[in-house]
Predict the structure.
Amino acid sequence: MFARSTSPVRLIALATTVLLLAACTSSGASPAASTGSMRVENAWARASMGMDRAGAAYLALTNDTGQTDALIGARSSAAATVELHETSADASGQMAMHPIDRIDLPIGSRIALEPGGRHIMLIGLTADLVAGQEVQLTLDFEHAPDLIVKAPVKAN
């Protein structure tokens, strides 16, 4: 197939090129080798008890992007301020919520934001969160593109 004058260096370069092209066109890429997306499941928001009260949204995030990432914020027209929060016990054992800067999302991880744990706080609601309606959230990631999520509002 090759003339005798083909040098070993050229053969190695050709073989490397063929392998790279095969890897790029493979249809059965492994999760670590492929660049997927951030997936959201089970998004919902809790019905509010009035606009003077804060609201909360919950969801599960799966990082299929092929790289470590982090949820670093969220936005919504339903609230003046949107923060990432965590519920934890203080030194006396009293449970309290506090803002957090980020939620780390290792490769392939599924992280649940749920009542009593990490969640998205909706502060300064622009309208009551009424069961049966939807709240639109924009999730901000350190690396992945912003993701718009529609969360149905559910009664407590």
In short: The chain has one helix and ten strands. The CA atoms of residues 86 and 118 lie 4 Å apart. The radius of gyration is 23 Å. Strands lie at 38-46, 55-63, 69-75, 79-89, 95-99, 103-105, 110-113, 118-125, 134-141, 147-154.
